[in-house]
Write a structure and sequence with these properties.
Number of helices: 9
Low-confidence stretches: none
Distance between the termini: 15 Å
Shape: globular
Radius of gyration: 17 Å
Mean pLDDT: 94
Largest sheet: 7 strands, parallel
Strand content: 5-15%
Structural class: alpha/beta
């Protein structure tokens, strides 16, 4: 059986350089999926994406509870925001959740608002993942997955960090193990390639990451963060990713590895 690879661009809507890069790559057929930061994306961005969405370009939710401000009124989700009405950072949110300071009702209200924003724009989410992998944090992750399931999401990202050998990769693998039981009842790719998160995009890192993932699973997701410029303070190397996908080399490399590119519809 031929292996299948979903190339998913995270962070649609995060800023103009990321959004434009994803639109260009999607229109060119060089990627097969994207996930939207619903609390950042402009209406015009969503309209442009809606024109591209198809069975070969899936659109999901990049659940964001740790950057920017909520779509919900701050008063409706008080346990999720600071005194300025902004989301807490990932570590702050996690620590607050562990201390019992985050209300499940607030989480559900905001997650529902983000899903609704996409659906109202003609983009019913095909799947979900989350900003900085919140949906697979210990204890917090299972709560988020439970809410996503309640709200009708049927497909989510499975965190495995295939092909990554760095320290953060090991931490992510531990997170993945802790939340594995909570994924039951949800469809997921069998492995996640995240090699471009730790090194500049290249044919060798693509081949290594995808090859390792194909040894684990039949359906694999490649997590990407392309952009037309770099984002100050971010460790991501967005421009090399954009240029790699735009060059089209991934298709030939994928054929050499015995795979084909698919959207989340294949999960």
């Amino acid at each position: 059986m031929q292996k299948k690879l979903i190339i998913n661009c995270d962070d649609f809507g995060w800023d103009a350089p990321a959004t434009q890069a994803i639109l260009e790559l999607g229109a060119a057929g060089q990627v097969s999926s994207t996930t939207v930061m619903a609390n950042f994306a402009h209406d015009a961005d969503l309209r442009a994406l809606q024109k591209l969405a198809s069975p070969t370009l899936s659109v999901g939710l990049h659940l964001t509870l740790n950057a920017g401000q909520p779509l919900s009124a701050a008063a409706a989700v008080p346990s999720l925001v600071d005194k300025d009405g902004q989301f807490y950072s990932s570590s702050q949110l996690w620590q607050r959740y562990l201390r019992g300071q985050v209300r499940r009702a607030d989480l559900k209200t905001e997650i529902a608002a983000q899903l609704h924003r996409l659906a109202a724009a003609g983009l019913p989410p095909s799947h979900a993942d989350s900003h900085q992998h919140l949906h697979q944090y210990p204890l917090l992750g299972p709560a988020l997955l439970s809410i996503l399931r309640e709200l009708g999401v049927r497909r989510v990202r499975r965190l495995t960090a295939a092909g990554r050998l760095d320290g953060r990769g090991l931490v992510l693998q531990a997170f993945a193990l802790s939340s594995r039981p909570a994924l039951r009842g949800l469809a997921t790719p069998g492995a996640l390639v995240s090699t471009f998160s730790t090194e500049p995009a290249s044919a060798s890192s693509f081949r290594r990451g995808v090859g390792a993932a194909f040894r684990q699973a039949e359906v694999v997701e490649f997590m990407s963060h392309p952009g037309l410029n770099e984002r100050p303070g971010s460790p991501l190397m967005r421009v090399p990713e954009y240029e790699f996908w735009r060059g089209g080399e991934a298709r030939e490399l994928l054929r050499e590895l015995g795979g084909e590119m698919v959207s989340y519809a294949a999960v």
